[in-house]
Amino acid sequence: MKILVTGFDPFGGEPINPAIETVKRLPDVIAGAEILKLEVPTVCHKSLQVIDEAIKKYDPDVILSIGQAGGRPDITVERVGINVDDCRIPDNEGNQKIDEPVYPDGPAAYFVTIPIKAMVQKIQSKGIPASISNTAGTFVCNHVTYGVCHLVATKYLGKRSGFIHIPYLPQQVTNKSNMPSMSQDLLVEGITAAIEAIVETKQDIKVTGGATH
Predict the structure, then answer these.
(1) Which residues are catalytic, by number?
(2) Which terminal Cβ of the chain has fewer Cβ within 10 Å, N or C?
(3) Domain 2-200 maps to which CATH number in 3.60.21.10, 3.40.50.300, 3.40.630.20, 1.20.970.10?
């Protein structure tokens, strides 16, 4: 099995992005699966072009994307991507799409096709906080969540894809009052555990992972 793991470059004025820093530090083999690592620009559409080219080149079985979610206290495995770009801030090339579809011909939403609950359970088994997220936002992270699902549904049938959001690194919050963070070592361990669950799980487990709001 080959798993393409992508991580975004820094954005929003941050000097570092825990997503690509974590991806760089992943083992080259996890649970017998070859791990292919890719840095992705935090830019609408260009991010998907880079991922599309990598899928063509490497033919991975799974595409797992990692993004920063500053303010979240735990590792969050996304359930769904929605067909809208509504960018609160410009992307790294100054684009600020508002109320535009990711793909005009696409459905309203896609559920990811990785075992999200098994992944959360595996991360938690390492003593690392994790949960299901039901919104990937409306910035480039959702753009990639939805967009890669669309690529898989229309061009790369049989492959699986999904998205994980991770918190800030401690060095990012030294001047941010009451802002949660997670160490680089824990992030690497948590994402490694999530990938182990992807490799080991053919059908997701059925346990509660919902929310009331």
Answers:
(1) 78, 141, 165
(2) C
(3) 3.40.630.20
